Structures
1.
Amino acid sequence: MGNSLLNTSVKSSDGRLTKKVRVTFNAPVTLTFVIVCFLALILNILTHGFTNRLLFSVYRSSLFSPFTYIRFFGHAIGHADWAHLLGNMMTILILGPLLEEKYGSFSMLVVMASTAFVTGVASFILFPGIQLLGASGIVFAMILLSSFTSMREGEIPLTFILVALMYLGEQVYYGVALQDNISNTSHIIGGICGAAFGYMMNRAKPSAQLKTTGNTGSGNNTYY
């Protein structure tokens, strides 16, 4: 699982080599996204905010500019400062590998890109005077998606209901009762995207497994 980055041998008490310890690139989409986010913040610091304005934030701009469409996705990569970045990356590094292991790297790439696009377009339309940036929409998508990991056909996990009530309810409350610079709308939309993808992918999984049950071939089957 994953590409090996480092191999080291461990010696026993009698000096013999007993086993190898490997450091693996276990979640390529998650790890690549985190690395790109770190590089984007460094680049933004070096350019004194220029790259965030150009590529890594979304705001009302001309639909004739190609950068507008890049920013629909790129805003999820940009962050305002190190605290903003680390807060999002810690959650992504916890949930991302687990979700990537369950659903596959390509599926998680689709989830993350789709969530970024939907939250970016929503902010572009609804909040023309706001500059949105950060991966918090993807974070909330992962949180809601993770609550679907135990879903069975015809069932909705109680964990999903509780997580949805707590996280999305909290964001609705913050959006109504408090005023700050955090985009509660993007959090809510991100959570809805995660819930929708979780429902669709888990609903499709039993039927995919059923189709391959009678396969007697030696090859491995990948569903997601």
Note: The chain is about 60% helix and 10% strand.
2.
Amino acid sequence: MAATKHITLSELQVLIKKGIAERHPMPYWVVAEISEIKVNYSGHYYLELVEKGGENSIPKAKANAVIWRNHYTMIGSYFQTATGGDLCAGLKVLVKVAVHYHELYGLSFQITDIEPSYTLGDIEAQRRETILRLQQEGIYEMNRQTDLPKVLQRLAVVSSAQAAGYQDFMNELNKNAPGYTFRVTLFQSLMQGHQTEDSVIQALDRIAERLEDFDAVILIRGGGSQSDLSAFNSYRLCSHLAQFLLPVLTGIGHDKDQSVADLVAHTALKTPTAVAAFLIEHHLLFEAGIDQMLRQLSEFARDNLQHEQNRLREYAHRLNQRSAGTIHESGRRLDRLLPDIGYCSMLRIREQSLYCRSLSGEMARVPRQKIAGQADRLTTASARVRELSRNLIQHQANRLELLDTKLEGKNPERILQMGYAIVRRENGQPVTHIREIHTGDTLTLQLSGGTARTQIIDTHQKTEEP
């Protein structure tokens, strides 16, 4: 059997290396996403670059790359100065790549330069895309439209327990001068790196299972670069925040640009400390409102009481005037009636006398018994007239006395002196039935000589007849 023509493995590797070097002599500017980055003991940075595609962002290409230590000193510093952050997983980058093939380590890309403006542009593009999508779906302003409770005391905080921002927030909250008490429940979450989005969403889901336990959600972290904050521009995270049923307050710790999370939150503040200050100020405003309401209520009660006292004095004055007027008028009427009664009696007597004299001539011709009878009749009539006069005078006097007694009996001050009292509520409204009062009510009693306040200990309602 003839020997098959062959080459060694190393010779094949040399051919591949030579072919790649001849085919790709110049570096390329390549767009990719950093899925993983590691630094070894010698200071070299090893990266895994991916290109994602489709709705599920499944990698369609993957390659290893390296930044040698001497190159990273320049590249890393330049990138950090331009973006405010270091290279990390999850960033989309535009890098200058030289293609190399090694007999032992295979194909690799050596990164010799980077364009930071592309990363910043990608972050801003992601930010704008997220805002537009949220607006198109009609959920961009949903959380801002939730009602912020008057008292924010039960707080669900999404942060990292080790984050300086969380410590600053708790210190500011606990040392508040008015001494307000807050109940803070921490929902641990990563706040930096490519896992931030999933971690924050999981924390929000845990809060959603206990909505009744909280008044608001607090999302805080310390300061960071734009690349560090890219997770807070993602659609998934911001969609959760925008549709959350509790108001969300953010203090993500950056002073220049607002993240989309800030834009969809109910209230966005610059730092975690500013969030704590806002919560304390919110309580101060609520307390000031309560104090103002108490002052207004006291003034209203005082004015209403003064008004009712003035009305009572006016009614008493009118009653006294009316009683005095009625008594005076009755006296005047009696004075007018007395002369009329006497005059009428005299006229009646005079009329009878004239009648008797007119009949005297005729009476002289009748028998003495007839004259005596007429004299008795005259005497009886005169006595009757006198009796009628006395009865009329007595009747009018009794009537006046009865009217005076009735008027005196209706005098409120006399009624109060008999042991009765006028019962009113604190708002001045009179109480007319036992059903209108309850145990613990505070009432005002109008008594003879003044008023008294009392509190109801118990009530007993009389059983009504069926």
Note: The chain has eleven helices and 13 strands.
